[in-house]
Design brief:
By secondary structure, this protein is an alpha/beta fold. The chain is built from 13 helices and 9 strands. Among the domains are: 81 residues, Winged helix-like DNA-binding domain superfamily/Winged helix DNA-binding domain (Arc Repressor Mutant, subunit A, Orthogonal Bundle); 100 residues, Periplasmic binding protein-like II (D-Maltodextrin-Binding Protein, domain 2, 3-Layer(aba) Sandwich), CATH 3.40.190. Helix 1 packs across helix 3.
Length: 295
């Protein structure tokens, strides 16, 4: 097997993932001529072409298509190994990703306690509804709502959650009171489309899934609409407990359904027991244990 310089493989990945010599050069902060030279040398060393060249357009040959996934995996593992060795293990930057709704409605009011107890940890939170690819990012860990199993990751359960309808006091006074779920189901629900609501609709009927605001995909906007008396929102207990306690929202009926999914702390194996990651994980577990379930 020919010995291939690592720099040549990095250059190949930069070009192949973008299908552009110019963009690959920009990503590596080198000239296009240097990139072209590296690719030609790599093709000569492997004794086969990796790209089809059509003027300024390029595409991967069959050999290039086979090589790219393995190079990407190898570079990702090298990057992770270097990060694990070089980073500060007990303090410094800690990158965590989670959904914006759980950050704003549940975690944000509690964060001061963590900052006060661990002032040397620079907690940085990235909000995204999409699952992060730990191999392609600098994230150390995540808080996820799901079934609890993610390939290649370690996880620990933080807390369960429940689905319940909420509305404003003004809406309840105008449209209520609701003596039963049958009365409530005469109104459209506001909710962001998600599998998380499936247990509710299994119990109370699929017909109530056709809410007039169901095209919105933002749980925070849905709750804002409910606060503005636009209707009855389906939400999760973790998101509305403080709003109910403060009187911003009320429960029009006592109906509540446990979700199929729970909240989990997840991290790649190489980060899971890193001291600063473990500090944040243990603090989260304590906060979740102190969070009362709905009555």
């Amino acid at each position: 097997m020919p010995s291939v310089p690592l720099n040549a493989l990095r250059t190949f990945e930069a070009v192949a993932s973008r299908l552009s010599f110019a963009k690959g050069a920009a990503a590596l902060n080198v000239t296009p001529a240097a990139v072209s030279s590296q690719i030609r040398a790599l093709e000569q060393r492997l004794n086969q072409a990796l790209f089809h060249r059509h003027g300024r357009q390029i595409s991967l040959t069959e050999a290039g298509q086979k090589l790219l996934p393995g190079v990407q995996r190898g570079l990702a593992e090298l990057r992770q190994a270097v990060e694990v060795v070089s980073q500060d293990r007990s303090e410094g930057v800690l990158n965590v990703t989670m959904m914006p709704s759980i950050l704003q409605k549940w975690l944000m009011p509690r964060l001061a306690g963590f900052y006060n107890s661990k002032p040397l940890i620079d907690l940085r939170i990235n909000v995204d509804n999409l699952l992060v690819d730990f191999d392609q990012s600098d994230m150390h860990s995540a808080v996820r709502l799901g079934p609890g199993k993610w390939a290649g990751l370690e996880s620990v359960k933080l807390m369960d959650d429940w689905i319940l309808p909420v509305c404003s006091k003004k809406f309840l006074k105008k449209m209520g009171p609701f003596s039963s779920m049958e009365d409530l189901l005469q109104h459209d629900f506001l909710f962001a489309p998600s599998e998380v609501w499936d247990p509710w609709f299994r119990k109370y009927g699929e017909s109530s899934r056709d809410g007039r605001w169901s095209l919105l995909n933002d749980s925070l906007s849905i709750l804002m609409a409910a606060e503005q008396s636009e209707g009855i929102a389906l939400s999760r207990w973790s998101l509305v407990a403080r709003d109910i306690s403060a009187g911003r929202l009320v429960r029009p009926v006592d109906a509540i359904v446990k979700t199929d999914w729970s909240h989990y702390f997840v991290a790649p194996p190489q980060y899971f027991d890193l001291p600063k990651v473990a500090d944040f994980r243990d603090w989260l577990i304590e906060q979740c244990a102190a969070f009362p379930p709905p009555e």
